[in-house]
Design a protein that fits this description.
Layout (H helix, E strand, L loop, with lengths): L5 E13 L9 E18 L3 E6 L2 E6 L13 H14 L4 E8 L9 H16 L6 H16 L5 H8 L2 E5 L4 E5 L7 E4 L6 H14 L1 H23 L3 H17 L5 H12 L4 E5 L6 E5 L9 E3 L9 E3 L3
Parallel strand pairs: 3-5
Antiparallel strand pairs: 1-2, 1-12, 2-5, 2-6, 3-4, 6-7, 8-10, 8-11, 9-10
The structure holds (R)-mevalonate.
The site of (R)-mevalonate has 12 residues, from α5.
Length: 316
């Protein structure tokens, strides 16, 4: 098999705009890619060991002995990505994989999904194997399910396609949205959320109240479709109202917190017209519309939206 010696790929993080949680149950969501990227350098080395060099850890294991359950948490997604690729293409060569992150995992921008995408993209480049975006998505989605067992895959779609997307779970629909302008502020609550726990919590609520919770998901799905129209028309008044409605529905699912309420109220006091949590809830970031004026008691992150999807980078 042909191969290059070394490649570098980068993939962006994501920000959920509308439709979290309901997307896990087959409804659409809207997600945008953020201009905070993770780089993965993938290099062919002798032997059959996979050496992973992540910011906080070095770890190596034989390529045909990768055990996701036993692996340290910092390298699980990289190893799951390598295992999926190696299995699919029958590769058992030694590899060195170095990951470099431009963003802290505490913001909830999806560092695990971005690293999974960057590694599988880099491996295809290294072995000069052509892959479509959809094939890349399928492989990455399998890798993420191998590690965490739950998730819609919206974050992987954002990392692969970039821009802003309408997405349905498992990639049943991935539709790039042409949006000229996205004047959204990103506010960090200061607290890291645990997505897997919150997804399970919502699933348990649904077990106890199936009709009611499915009704809430349906309402969230309707909000997403109206938000798609409002975004296309740059109708910020409509979009603000839809954000507030979406936040109310998320509150009824029990994923909002007193901290999220407090920060939302503070943002509204200085000009936010619409605000909601973004992602699983419990913390992470909020997205807000409206000009935030004067003194703020909260952190607004300087983040570019609608960033480019996964791509090859030059390496030294
Ligand atoms: C988490 O960022 C968003 C959820 O909808 C989970 C998912 O879609 O994978 C809660």
């Amino acid at each position: 098999m042909k191969s290059m010696k070394k490649t570098r790929s980068s993939a962006p993080g994501k920000l959920m705009l509308f439709g979290e949680h309901a997307v896990v149950y087959g409804h659409p969501c809207i997600v945008t890619a953020v201009d905070q990227r993770i780089n993965a350098e993938v290099e062919l080395i002798g032997g059959d060991e996979v050496e992973v060099i992540a910011p906080s850890i070095k770890f190596s294991v034989a390529i045909n002995k990768i055990d996701i359950l036993q692996a340290p948490k910092e390298v699980k997604f990289v190893l799951a990505a390598v295992r999926i690729f190696a299995k699919k293409h029958g590769i058992n060569k030694g590899l060195k994989i170095t990951t470099i992150s431009a963003f802290a995992s505490s913001f909830g921008f999806g560092s695990s999904s971005a690293v999974t995408v960057a590694v599988i993209h880099g491996l295809h480049e290294l072995f000069e194997i052509k892959v479509t975006k959809k094939e890349l998505f399928e492989m990455c989605y399998q890798a993420v399910l191998d590690v965490q067992g739950v998730g819609s895959g919206f974050d992987l779609a954002a990392a692969i396609w970039g821009g802003t997307l309408l997405f349905v779970t498992g990639g049943k629909k991935i539709e790039p949205l042409a949006i000229e302008n996205l004047p959204i502020s990103v506010i960090f609550t200061g607290v890291k959320a645990d997505t897997v726990t919150l997804v399970k919590q919502v699933s348990e609520l649904r077990d106890r109240h199936p009709k009611i919770v499915d009704g809430i998901f349906k309402q969230i799905g309707a909000v997403v479709l109206s938000a798609q129209v409002a975004l296309a028309n740059s109708d910020w008044n409509q979009l603000s109202e839809l954000m507030n409605i979406n936040q109310g529905l998320l509150e009824s699912l029990g994923v909002s917190t007193p901290l999220i309420h407090r920060v939302s109220d503070e943002a509204k006091e200085v000009g936010a017209t619409g605000i909601k949590l973004s992602g699983a809830g419990g913390g992470d970031c909020l997205v807000a519309l409206g000009e935030l004026k004067g003194q703020r008691k909260f952190d607004v992150l300087e983040i570019g939206l609608q960033a480019a999807g996964v791509r090859s980078e030059k390496y030294e």
